[in-house]
Structures are given as structure tokens and as C-alpha cells.
């Protein structure tokens, strides 16, 4: 299926916060009460539409355990977006956010869009981290924030799609899509508009397109 | 020296041998591998004897000796062992108990007592755990309920029917303690996710008969079973045995779990290298699509392919014999001992080659999705199959690479197991025997394992593609085999 852009995402955060369940809910629209624990990385993809543009999301779901950090770090490079997930019912997962963020800042490209996700919003009676705290943390670190429930699917679509919208805005603002480390690939067509030679993006020419503006790069 | 150069060199060595030497050597090797007619069954003997039910006799013969011949035991264990003998075979093969029969009981008593002293020490009620220990325990407690293989084990219908909730609880606590104590006593690896998968085979045991589900313990020989006896002493012993056996296996793959997992990286590189030599087109296709072996083989290697063969991890009734009623490759791992990692790389490679044609037709996304949920997850033996075909499939063997160390000559064998749901190639034992015979002649003088592997895969592949449905060796097959190298 043709797409205008492909965005690489990673999902990071402590083990057991629901990263794999978020991915499963987003790609398969289902919830698995118990998900086999992730070893290394797992992969999922889905097409989304942002302002009538088809965007393919290529999502790498990483293992949360400290021992796997060295392997998961290699996935930061070349990611356009990251979902940084914590569990609102386990305070320690919220407290570890800074170390995750530090890791991301160190190993990802500085243009990576990070969405902060407080997951398990359906288990409100066990909540240990308030929404305000999440918002506060996001504001402090310049992240976008959402509380989600992989179980009820509440805000799951939004988490992935809003991140894509932010990336689209960045492209419109001149993010260099030809730089591979930005985690963006220019696709071969946008909704059958004959994009190859048309007004959208010429993939052949893409490596030479410096920034936004002009005919190329108008995403959203 | 490049691979080709090495081969040329080896080839020339072969040619340089005087003819008589070469022939006698080949004869000798073939004899040692295939076994003499009058001799007790050698490796091939085992294969053909499985069907006639004498496999059990073979193991009984090996085990009843007052001092077990380890080499023989491991050789036989390689291709699967009767379920009820598995606990004993594993314990001896792993070196948990000595080969000398008289010392079994004494060793078991001592090792179990040793384990229970650890357990008493670390889980003493008024002992205060430090933060690291609490983290580890916490992690293990989070992970156990979300390990599919463990859940399968506990949801096994027999356990479910026969075990009160309490037994399941005790079981889980036992697994928790085993993993925790292992982590604390091995700070180099500590606890790494994936170990909950690896502990399963030790706890899972196997069906020893239609109505008997036994756990991994020598107690099974006295006819007790966990579900029946609900005996806490028994469970304690099982726990101790599992601990020591798990440790033995983890020790051989220690660097799979140390910082940055160098062992896993090595396996992945090895797979990459083997694929690049064995199926250039596949290798290039994967490279073109941007597929990195690490994307999937990391998990394959970490969990020793248990997840990829998850269909085999559930105990089940076997129609004809029970040698394969367990993840048989775990028998193989145990028998490989220190070569487990190498074998793992071969096994991963064999899987990739098996799916090569499918993979070559796929784009990046589909390749990754395919390999993360490969067809092997549904590979089973015969449990749901009531059709007559069951018997045939039960006696076939899985797509595996066999590495046999024999007289410093290694022979690698590719065989295939049929799965009813897959359009697999039936590889009859007769055919295997023949392939092994023919190939052993070619490879006898090749001391380099990789080259043999390469060669055998090539000839095996040709054989399979030229004649996929036949269970008979045709003259054209022989020609193919002879064409190599």
C-alpha cells in the first residue's frame, strides 16, 4: 500500500507498564490480559491518515528490563517518535522516567518527538500517580502527554496519531526528511495523486531536498 | 583463509590421500557413525529403532549399567528420549549426578540439602532484603505470570483438573525461588527476562503414559507424581533438582545473559554468516530489505527457541511413542553440553533456510512479522490428529541440524519433521539413513564443520527440492548427492 511517509517509532519505559499491550491495541485493536514478556524488541506496523495523507507507522516495541538496554538503545537511532510509557498504578515506573528520558536524549536524534503516556488509566482505584503530576513532568521536559488505557483502548489511537501529527508539523517546519537518522522515509505515493512526479515529493530527489518549503516537504 | 580456499585445501588433502587410506578411513568413520550390523545400535540404529519401540530398550540398556557411558547417553539423548527416563538422563548428562549409579542417592541428598539451605537462608522470614534483591524478586514476580510457556504448563489440563489451587501456588513459589536464588548467587548474570521461559522445560516434565503426568524428578521412578501425591517433599526435591539443572544449562550459556549479551550477539553473527554462505540470495534479500538478524534472532537465542516451538511445549498424548512428546530440541541442547550455543546457531539457520523461499517473497514488514510469529509455533506432533497420517508424522523427525562429534569428525545432518498443518516434506527414517550414509562418505574427511554443514545443506536442499513428496530415494537423488561437492 502506498504511503506518503513512513515514521519509525519506538515504545520505551519500565517493564510491565503495558508497552506491548498498547502496541497490540493499536495495531490489532485487541487487548490481551497477559502478554508474553518482550525479549529484545517486537515489531508492529499500521497505516494512519493525517490530514488525508497516508502515513505508515513502523513501531518497535522494546523490552523494559535494564539488561536489554544495550540492545534497545540501538533502536533509538533512526526513530522519529517515541512513546515513553509509565504505569499510573506503579509509582516507581513514573520515577524512572528521567533515566529513560536521559537515555533517549543521549541516543536518539534531537528531533525525535516524545509522547509521555500514563497507561492503565482504567485501574483508577489503584492510581499512584496523578494526572497532574504527569502533565507537570511533560511540561517540564517539553513532551506531549496523554493518559491511556490499553485495555479499554482509551486514548490509544490518539497517542500514536498525535505523535504522527507532531512529526508532520515538524516536517512542515522544515525537518530534513532526507536525513535517515530522523526516522522518516519518503514514500511512493500519497493517496493516488501521482506523487512520484507530482506536486508532493519526488523520492528520487528526496536526498537532495534540504528542508521544507517549495513543492517538496509539505506534509500536513 | 576464506571458506572457498579452505575447501579447496581440504579437497586437495582428500585427493592427496592414498586411495587405500582414504577408503579405510571412510569405512571406519561410516562404521563408527552408522554402527555395525552385529554391534549394538549406533546412531542410525537409534533412529530406526524408534519406530519399533526399542528406543526405550536402548536407553534402559545405557542407564542400567552401573556406570553410565556418558558419550553413549548423550549421543542417544540427542534425538529425544522416552519421557519417563528424561529426568534421569538429563541429570546424568548435565553432570548433576555422577554416572555411577551407587552414588546417585548420596549426591541427590547432598545437593538437595545444599539447595534447601540456600532457600532457607535467602527466604528466612526475618531476613531483610537489600534494594537490589527486592528489585530482582519484584521483577521475577512480575514476569512469572506473564510467561506464556509457564502459563501453558500450569494450565495443562491434567494439572488443572487434578491440582488444587494450592499446588499451583506452591509451584509458582518454587519457580520464583529457583530464579531468585540463581540470580543472587550469580551476580554476573543476575536475573534476565527470558529465564522464566528457560525454567519451564525443567518443571514441565512429560507425559509418561496416557494417564500419568509426571514432573521432572527422580521420584517418578518410584511411581509418584506431583498431581497425585500432592506431596510437598516431592515438590521440594523437584525444586532443588530444577535449580541445579537450570544452573548447569545457564552456566553453559552464561554469556547470553551477562551485560550486553555477548553470547547472543555471537549467535546472531554466526547465523548471519551461515546464511550468507548457505543461501546468498536470501542473505542479500534480507540485506536489501534492511532486515537485521538481531530483529528476530535476539529473542530466538535468548529463549533458546522455546517460544518459536511453543506448540511442542505442551505435554500431550502421543500415539505411537513418546520420544517427541516434549520440546525434543531441549533433549538435544542437554546432550550438546558446552556446544549448545553453536547448535543453537545451526538450528536458527536451519529454520531460516527452511523458510527461505517464503522470506524472499516478502518485504521488510512481512519478513519481520513472519519471523516474530513463525509457522513453527504451531508445529506439533500428533496430539490433535486422529487420522491415520498421525503415525507417519509421529515417526518423522524435525527440520534440524544434527552435529555429531565422532572421532573428531563431525557429521551434520539435516532432517525434517512433518507437521500436518504444514506442507512439509516427509522425510522417512529410511531416507534419513540413506542420506546419512551417503553424506558421511563425503564428509568423513572434512574436518571443518561449517563446510560440511554448507555442503550438506546444499545437497539436502537439492534432494528436497528435486523430490519433495517422495519417501523413497530415487536414482536422481543419488546423482544429486554424488554431485557434491
From TrEMBL, chain A:
Stored PROSITE patterns: RAB, RAS, RHO
GO cellular component, one term: plasma membrane
Subcellular localization, as worded in the UniProt entry: Cell membrane
SUPFAM superfamilies named in the record: P-loop containing nucleoside triphosphate hydrolases
Parts of the chain that traverse the membrane: none
Principal place of residence: membrane
Membrane topology: Lipid-anchor
Coiled coil: none
Keyword flag Magnesium: no
NCBIfam families named among the record's database cross-references: small_GTP
Function: Protein transport. Probably involved in vesicular traffic.
UniProt protein name: Ras-related gtp-binding rab2-like protein
Source organism of the structure: Micromonas commoda (strain RCC299 / NOUM17 / CCMP2709)
Lineage: Eukaryota, Viridiplantae, Chlorophyta, Mamiellophyceae, Mamiellales
UniProtKB/TrEMBL annotation, chain B:
All residue ranges annotated as the Rab-GAP TBC domain in the record: 80-325
UniProt GO MF annotations: GTPase activator activity
Pfam families in alphabetical order: RabGAP-TBC (PF00566)
Provenance organism: Micromonas commoda (strain RCC299 / NOUM17 / CCMP2709)
InterPro entries (alphabetical): Rab-GAP-TBC_dom, Rab-GAP_TBC_sf
Domain of life: Eukaryota
Transmembrane stretches, start-end: none
Protein name: Rab-GAP TBC domain-containing protein
